[in-house]
Each structure stands twice: as C-alpha cells, then as structure tokens.
Amino acid sequence: xxxxxxxxxxxxxxxxxxxxxxxxxxxxxxxxxxxxxxxxxxxxxxxxxxxxxxxxxxxxxxxxxxxxxxxxxxxxxxxxxxxxxxxxxxxxxxxxxxxxxxxxxxxxxxxxxxxxxxxxxxxxxxxxxxxxxxxxxxxxxxxxxxxxxxxxxxxxxxxxxxxxxxxxxxxxxxxxxxxxxxxxxxxxxxxxxxxxxxxxxxxxxxxxxxxxxxxxxxxxxxxxxxxxxxxxxxxxxxxxxxxxxxxxxxxxxxxxxxxxxxxxxxxxxxxxxxxxxxxxxxxxxxxxxxxxxxxxxxxxxxxxxxxxxxxxxxxxxxxxxxxxxxxxxxxxxxxxxxxxxxxxxxxxxxxxxxxxxxxxxxxxxxxxxxxxxxxxxxxxxxxxxxxxxxxxxxxxxxxxxxxxxxxxxxxxxxxxxxxxxxxxxxxxxxxxxxxxxxxxxxxxxxxxxxxxxxxxxxxxxxxxxxxxxxxxxxxx
Length: 476
Ligand code: FUL
Prior knowledge:
The protein is an alpha/beta fold. It has helices at residues 3-19, 37-45, 56-59, 80-90, 129-140, 161-177, 203-213, 296-306, 327-344; strands spanning 47-51, 94-100, 143-148, 183-186, 218-221, 227-229, 244-245, 269-270, 273-278, 312-316, 353-356, 378-379, 387-405, 414-423, 426-433, 440-459, 464-465, 467-471.
C-alpha cells in the first residue's frame, strides 16, 4: 500500500469514527442515579393488585378504631385462589395485602398482639391469611408483598418507644415466614393510639429489618427508599415524572407530597413512583359501593396515566364479606384487560424500517427500538442530547397511541421529545412530552401515515430508546 493510500484510509477512518461518534461500539456511560436490579425488576412488573381486607370489610368503616371485636372477621367462603385467578387474568404481576391496617388487626396469628385472626371465628381461629395468600401467589407465579401500617389504633404500647420494637417484631414475623416478598408497603399515616399519643416511628429500625430479612424487597413509603408515593390516590402521575428525587427532602407523611409526583431531573436518588388507587370509592369493600366500581374505560385511563407515565399501578380490589372478589369488580377487570390487550397487544410499528440522524454504531442501531426487546436499545453518540428516529412502516397504518421506553439501566435521560407524522409530504407534530422513563404512552390524534418521527429534543446526556411502538384503541 502506498503512503498516500494509507493516509487516505486513515483520514477516512477518522471521519467515519467522528461521524458515528468516537464511541463506536461502546455503550454510553451510566448516568447516575441508577436503579438497583430490584427496582428495575419491580418497574417492569407495571401492574400489581392491592388487597384491603380485614374487620373493616365487615364493619363498613375505612379506618377501624382498634376496638372492634375480632370476632367480626368471619369470611365464610374465603377462597384466595379465586382472588389469584382474577388478578392473573387481569394481568397483575404481584399482590400486596394489608397484613395489618390502622386498626392493628393482624391477618396472620401474630404473637405480638391479641388483635389477630387467632381471636376470630374464621377457620376456628386457626387460620393464617398471609400464609394462604402467599402460597396461592407462589403457585400461580405472582409476586407477593405486604402492607403493614405502622399506625396501630389497637396496640397498647403505641405511643411509646416499646411499640417500635413491637412493630419491628411484627415485620420480623411476616418477613421471615412466608417466602420471598417483593414489596413492603409502609403507610405514612401517624395518628394517635389507644393511649392518646402519637408514635415517633423508628424508620431506621423498620427499614433495616426489611433489608436484613428480605434484601430483594423494594420498600415503599412516601419517601422510599425503594419506591415513592406518587402523591395522590387517583392513580394518576403528572405528565413529567422523573424516577429521580432528593429523598432527604421528604419523610413518610411529608406535607410536601405534592412534589413527589414529578420528582426532579436533579434528584440524587433513584426512587420511582407508584400510583395506588382503588377500583371502588373506598379502600375496603362495602356492598353499597357495588354500583360505583370503576368502569373498564376508567381503569384503562388510569393505566395510561400511571404505567404510561413511568409509574407502576397498584390497583386495590377489596374482597367482600364472603372473602371473594365481587362480580362487579371481576367484570370491570375483565373489560379493562380486554381494552389493554386489544390496544397494546398489537404493535403497529412491527416491520418498520428505522433510520436515525444520530448513530452510535454497532450494537446500538436505530432498528433495536422495534425489536420488542427492552434490553436492546438505540443510543445517540456521546456529547449529543438530541436525535431523531424515523420509522417507515410497511404500509400506511392508523394509530392513536405512541409508546416510548428508555433503557433505564443507564439512567433516566430524556427531558423533551416530539412525535411527528408524515401527512401528505409534510411532517406534522402529533405529540410531545418531557420525560419518558420506563414507559411513556403518548396519546395522539387518530393518525394514518406510513412515516413516524420521534425527535428527542433534550436529555441529561446522550439519549437511549429501548422501544417505540404504535397502537390503536378500539373505537368506542
Ligand atoms: C392510606 C390509608 O389511610 C388508607 O386507609 C389506605 O390504606 C391507603 C392505601 O393509604 O394512607
């Protein structure tokens, strides 16, 4: 080879590498804060069932006083396998039960309280609901989690330092006897106990107990540390939803809960939000609310406003006094599942050819956004915070939803995007937004086109996208 040819080849190589970014073939540097593997796995569950059950289902109140007779708890036809069948069919991946609500009543035979299933007529006082449900979940392949209210309106030690040890002991019972727990849910409510005093909670003790006994569980509270509250009980996240937040600003029961939904692009901690909402007006079952069960369409809107905004959805479905999920709730869930399947079960971006104006090189090609694998992704070169992906569909298709997903193991990056469709021969903006995160569902006007362009306009570092898909809701 002549010197001239070598020089030409060298300059061609320099040009090629700088055009594709000097980072050809290497992944972007992770951008802190980052999710733990447990948080990442948790986020991918997307949809979990919440179960509020206990004496309140029999007394008709939302907050039991702790003075209710434990004998009111008598679900004569209790069948947790029915719950699990209903939840699985609805697409839930995990179940979280109120093992102890504010009334202090324990759904397992705790040795640390007299207010438990052991004092009820259910299964002649020999029952253990936490055991039955955890077994049924394991058999059905659903994850199992527990809600334990620190606020306890029954326990005589509540309001004294001794209670913190009692509560940690209850956690110990629940977390060491029923197999793997995927989420521990701490309610921030902190009212008075039977002695008229409020408790100063020892959160360090509670959290370290969970971490010691169930290191793979994510801990929910208003302020995490694993998962944070979204700040409302409507099942709706803000349009901007960062998994990043400064948890040192908050504590369980924080008056700043309005800030929790959005989080912050400058947050130092990775604590994604969860949307908890009930399928009924109340958290506990009341037959008077049978006609007020949320409709399939309403549940679908909630799904899009939670899972579709970088949150998981924790949907409460409370069993009735028989100990069964009521028919009204079952049919609402069936209708909801149908809407989700019909809409999101078909990807109208399938078969698209994808081009990008920002390419990083092999292993990070634009086509990876339509390969259905969220562990492969397109990434822009280092140093750029923008990039446009153009999808050319096999033929013109009609859709009204665009779903975007970031590759979160490298951190949440995108802070602004646009979606455009080629109509005639001009690009028209059909959607826009700020954050993407695990999943962003963009509601767009019904659009027929063969070309869709997703433009990342701003990001905390070079953007990544694991998935772009197109969907159509059934006509009403
Ligand atoms: C709240 C509680 O006071 C409600 O009863 C319910 O359990 C809800 C999920 O959390 O703080």
